[in-house]
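Progress against Task 2.4 (sequence-to-structure conversion) is shown through the following example record, which the project officer requested during the mid-term review.
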Amino acid sequence: MDNNKIIIFDTTLRDGEQSPGASMNTEEKLRIALQLERLGVDVMEAGFAAASPGDFDAITQIAKQASNIRICSLARAVERDIKAAGEAVAPANKKRIHTFIATSPIHMEYKLKMKPDEVIKRAVNAVKYAKTFCDDVEFSCEDAGRTDIVFMKEICDAVIEAGAGTINLPDTVGYRLPTEIGEMIKQMVEFVKARAIVSVHNHNDLGLATANSLAAIMAGARQVECTLNGLGERAGNASLEEIVMAIKTRHDIFAPLYTDIICKEIYPSSRMVASITGIEPQPNKAIVGKNAFAHESGIHQDGVLKHKETYEIISAESIGLERNSLVLGKHSGRHAFKDKLASLGFELNNDALNEAFDKFKELADKKKEVFDDDIRALVTSEFIKIPEIYEIVTLGQSNCNKGLASASVTIKFDNELISDAALGNGTVDAIFKVIDRISGINGLLKDYKVNAVSQGKDALASVVVKVEFDEQNAVIGHGLDIDTMMASAKAYVGALNSYVRIKNLNR
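Structure tokens generated for the chain above:
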């Protein structure tokens, strides 16, 4: 191993998906996985195979199609989880099983209800069993940030002897300060020596995830676990883009350390994740926020116009952001459209390309200006989705008296057109009610978000809904259209299709 290389372990598809409202279907996960490969990520944690049939299916499909990246599945230190992980990653050219158990006193006593020696035995057995499925096994001390360092050394020594090649030390609850993380990693690197790679996985509960990850790297960690846009449970994870660009920008401090990330793919990757999950980075988010390269202050504007580096320590172009990039129009040809798709990270077969081009032409007739984000949203919406069990055909709407509204919808189901109408407390409520009536499946709306994809009065509306059907876990639906109400209907029908597919898969 090159001791100067920092291994980037991306867990957007596993820990990132645990963000409330960030659930993805198999097709969406596969598209992100292929983009992570394009980004240059070293290891991709594609999911938690034992969590659900959907997760197992997604990991398997990714393992079959992502050929140049190491595919990893998470597994608790139990045989059922490890077997599912091993079977899910089996098709991959390069595979890893990532098993874990809690090691902090509070977790061992109250969650596991196990003694320390029992925890060590369980960890060793898990690593040995994982080794029967693949050579590359990673072990994590869950809640390492609050684990006694003597016990941490004892359990890490035991799992390394059992065959673990990577030891991951997560600050699971985001509790530690950079100085504390640095000292912990320094001690563990000295203890482990060359027997295994020391890794970190930092959460952002105190806003320190990136700082803690960089402190760990300086102390000797050679793998860092992170997510695009900092997605993850609670306050999220360390952001891939922040860690990578800090190492690159502050080369004077981090040299000779480096990553293999293709920096020009950072912004396209961030936009893809935001489009698919419906979770936009905050406007002032470092590196990828929409205001990250915006200057309102007159003093700043004057300085940037004279010399960019007066206020910009990195360039927008270095992360793949083409500012104010007006792309194609209604007179653009198929070849130019294909080139644009390739530059945005989309590779479609001929049939899908022809369909995408037709959709683009329809959009260009409705919008005066078509931007990169419009293209991303169009392709993501049309070609990264589950099969349409229910397909919306037409939508009619009107306002009624006393705040009520009506909606009429025609839906295609099983090659039959079904039409109905309903009243609701507003147009969106009426649309969702009539879809419930046609499908016979009642949904409970848990969240509804609408955003403009790009700029201008004619911007595409992107709608994301979170819906519970039949008291099942909430599912996500996406809709895209010039008409916000049609986008809402598409999003709700998309959630319905996801629910039906998951239900069938579970059967």
